[in-house]
Amino acid sequence: MGREEQIEEREVLDSIFPDEITDVSDTSYRISITLEAPDNDEQSAEAEPPVLILQVSYPEDYPDVAPELELSAPPNAPKHPRLDIAEDRDRLLEALQPTIEENMGMAMVFTLVSALKESAELLMAERVNAVHAVQQAEAAKAEEEENKKFQGTIVNRETFLEWLDKFKKEMEEEERKLREEKEAEEKKANKKGPAKEEKKLTGKQLWERGLAGKADFDEEDEDGMPAAVEKMKIAA
C-alpha cells in the first residue's frame, strides 16, 4: 500500500514541478525551490534569487512515517545576503516538523515544499525588518541629537540656581580684573611723577633771544629790562 501511494505522489509532483524535480533513485528525488526575496530589501534586489534544493527519500512505510529530508544549496550558488543554507538548514528543517505531524498518513511532499518556501521567505523578511529597525533607530537617534541643538535648557529651581551661581562668579571675576587694571594704571602714573611747570621767560630773556615785541614783560621788574632800555633811563 505504501509503495503505491509513493508512486502516485511522485507522478502528481512531476506535473506540478516539471522543471524543478529530478530523480535520484526509484524512491528518492530532488526538488528545486526558488524563493522570492523581500520587496523592501535593496541588497536582495541586487542579488540572484536564493534557491533551495530539497531532497526527499521515501521510507518503506511512507506516508505512515515521515519522509527523509535533506536541504542544500545548488552547486556554486552565490551566497545570498539574507539566507545562508549551511547555517539555516537545521532551523528550516525543524520548522517543517509541525507540518509533518499534521499530515502523517497522507501524501505530504507538496505541502512540505510550500511550507519550506514560506518559512524561508519569512526568515529573510524578518532579517530585512531587523536591519530596517536598526536603521530607523539610528536615524531617530541622529534626529534627536540634531534637535537638541535647537532646544534650550529646561529651567527649574535647580538649573536657575546653578546658572545664578555661575553668573555671580563671572561678574566677580570681571570686577577683579577691572580693579587690577585700574590699580596697575595708577601705579604706573605715580612712578612718572608730577609734570614740570613751564618756566616763564623774563623780559630780558625775551629781548636777548630776539623775542621782544612778541611777548610782554613786567615793567616793575628792573632785572627783567633789556640793557638798552636801562641806558635810556639813565640818560634821561
Automatic annotation (TrEMBL):
Region spans: Disordered: 172-236
Lineage: superkingdom: Eukaryota
Domain RWD: 8-123
SUPFAM superfamilies, A to Z: UBC-like
Composition-biased stretches (Basic and acidic residues): 172-201
Alphabetical list of Gene3D superfamilies matching this protein: Ubiquitin Conjugating Enzyme (3.10.110.10)
Protein name: RWD domain-containing protein
Organism classification: Eukaryota, Fungi, Dikarya, Ascomycota, Pezizomycotina
